[in-house]
Design goal:
It is a single chain. The protein has about 375 residues and is an alpha+beta fold. It folds into three domains: about 40-155, Jelly Rolls, CATH 2.60.120; about 170-240, no CATH class; about 250-384, Protein Transport Mog1p, Chain A, CATH 3.40.1000. The protein is built from nine helices and 15 strands. The strands form three sheets. The protein has a six-stranded antiparallel β-sheet with strand order 10-11-15-14-13-12, with helices on both faces. A five-stranded mixed β-sheet has the order 1-3-8-5-6, with no helix packed on it. It is rod-shaped and about 100 Å long.
């Protein structure tokens, strides 16, 4: 009788164990069938890269975090809610969607995982074709609390190295807009505005300008992954716009009677509103200087150097002639007689005490470069 009771008790215990309910299935993101995309029901947290893990936390029920990442070349991809950086008791889930098509990741998960990582943490490890994907992290019951660290391990998620570095078009345009805005806001010349903008060529600033921005739909430009050389290239390019250090040496010469007479005549035409100065130089350079280099050399050697000068570069002879006509100066023939050549190109710089766009009282420096005889003629027009 005693053996029968024990057998019945043991059998009852086994039946009880078999009838224990299974753990509930992990709670997936709550999709709206009419909108059919994973990203619409999750909070986008940023972009994952192999050296840039994602960090998040859960403080409310039914919270799901979305992390986008780019696969540049077909590769094995491991997404891991890591032991380091994740709350020990947090039971995470992970869902993988993509690739992105027509700005949608879709609502059907490519893969999902609950506890394949350390402890109750999630891990997805699988091969993926090139494209943009979305990893969604949640909690198993939808009510978990804690913080997590999501790491991406993927050789094909590193962009191919770019060739010779130059200032990327997107960054160049951002700088141009920044220079215009700062010049207008602070009432300074573009050269001074460039000083302000150059200090902002860092990833956080460019992200704020949507250039290296962690967007769910657009891959970060390749240069964002190694910003340093491209930042340097932009600095060199924009420094050349304002602060040329030309390999051109000048020697001042006498103007001659004809040019002196034209200078006096021009000042009389100003009627006290401007001052006109003409100076003649010989130049020495290994190669024929550009219009910008000639203007920069005059600004440097004539001790006009000031960041408010904006070197504009090539101007047409017709533009110079129209400006001289306004001053009643028939300078071009007299200049050709003085230097012994009628072959020249023209550059200009302007100086303003007001913000762009330049006002009519902007000071001007026109420089005529004569490559055949290696002469420069500078005309400075100062408004009083």
């Amino acid at each position: 009788m005693r053996m029968t009771i024990l057998f019945v008790f043991a059998l009852t215990a086994c039946v009880g164990q078999e009838s224990d309910p299974k753990p509930p299935a992990p709670v997936p993101p709550p999709f709206d069938a009419a909108k059919d995309d994973a990203l619409r029901k999750v909070a986008f947290r940023g972009v994952l890269e192999p050296e840039r893990p994602g960090f998040g936390s859960f403080a409310e029920d039914l919270t799901f975090d979305g992390w986008a990442f780019e696969v540049y070349r077909g590769s094995d991809v491991k997404l891991d809610v890591t032991r380091t950086g994740t709350s020990r008791r947090l039971d995470t889930t992970m869902f993988l969607y993509g690739p992105l098509k027509h700005r949608k990741f879709g609502d059907s998960a490519l893969d999902a995982d609950d506890d394949s990582g350390w402890g109750a943490h999630s891990r997805i490890d699988r091969a993926l074709e090139p494209g943009r994907y979305l990893a969604v992290v949640g909690t198993a019951t939808g009510t978990g609390r804690g913080h997590y660290r999501l790491a991406l391990d993927c050789e094909g998620c590193e962009p191919q190295p770019m060739g010779a570095q130059r200032c990327p078009d997107e960054m160049d345009q951002w700088i141009a807009t920044c220079v215009d805005n700062v010049a207008a806001d602070l009432w300074v010349a573009p050269a001074i505005a460039w000083h302000e903008c150059s200090a902002s060529l860092w990833e956080d600033d460019l992200a704020g300008a949507d250039l290296c921005d962690p967007s769910p739909f657009v891959a970060r430009p390749s240069w964002c992954h190694n910003l340093g050389p491209f930042r340097d290239a932009c600095e060199w390019q924009w420094n050349d716009k304002f602060f040329l250090d030309p390999d051109v040496r000048t020697t001042p010469l006498g103007t001659g009677a004809a040019l002196d007479a034209l200078e006096e005549e021009a000042e009389r035409s100003c009627d006290g509103t401007c001052r006109v100065g003409i100076q003649v130089y010989r130049y020495d350079a290994a190669e024929e200087p550009t219009a910008q280099q000639s203007v920069a050399a005059i600004i440097r050697d004539a001790q006009l150097a000031d960041p408010n000068w904006q070197i504009e570069g090539d101007m047409t002879p017709e533009a110079l002639e129209a400006r001289l006509d306004a001053l009643q100066m028939d300078l071009i023939p007299a200049a050709s007689d003085r230097v012994g050549s009628d072959v020249f190109h023209v550059g200009r710089a302007r100086y303003s005490r007001r913000p762009p766009p330049f006002e009519p009282d902007t000071d001007e420096l026109w420089v005529m470069t004569y490559p055949e005889t290696r002469w420069l003629i500078a005309i400075e027009i100062v408004h009083l």
